[in-house]
Amino acid sequence: DTGVSQDPRHKITKRGQNVTFRCDPISEHNRLYWYRQTLGQGPEFLTYFQNEAQLEKSRLLSDRFSAERPKGSFSTLEIQRTEQGDSAMYLCASSLRAVNTEAFFGQGTRLTVV
Amino acid sequence: ILNVEQSPQSLHVQEGDSTNFTCSFPSSNFYALHWYRWETAKSPEALFVMTLNGDEKKKGRISATLNTKEGYSYLYIKGSQPEDSATYLCAHPGNTGKLIFGQGTTLQVKP
To answer: Is the minimum CB–CB distance between B28 and chain A shorter than 8 Å?
Structure first.
């Protein structure tokens, strides 16, 4: 297992377009998280899954954002009708269920909305 | 919602200096406290996961302490090196395990 992988690494899109990002977690990890990070800030929680179940979605997240994790394996994060304020680094992480186990991060997808 | 706060926001030190940062978190319903290091162009990597009050963990020149009763953790770097330059993040999971991160402390070590 090579760790958590995210695709694409970089995405430039025009305002109003839809984008989809993919995350492949470490295979035995049942927890999967999505975070968004902007300059000078820590990772902001977006949503997380326990296997295929989406346990929580941030109330700060608009309806334009949706995430799925079919079959409890890889996950996708879709942003519809992108806005310039969506420009950020989108990070995926996975972990085992216990709160005292570390999370492993992918290298992120850098989104730029022009 | 659990609030995690880190200070300072940024720090510039000379090579060889020792330094420390603070992470504050709600002391009620404590489960664990995570520290991560995030180097430029890389993924955040876990340094420590701490669970016991009074616990102290060490990895090379980096160590961390935990006070769950007052809700803070310190990260220490002894004899900073340029390769220690990174953003240091702490995170606090609630009882559901959802990791909430602080805003990070960005350390720059000048040769």
So the answer is: no
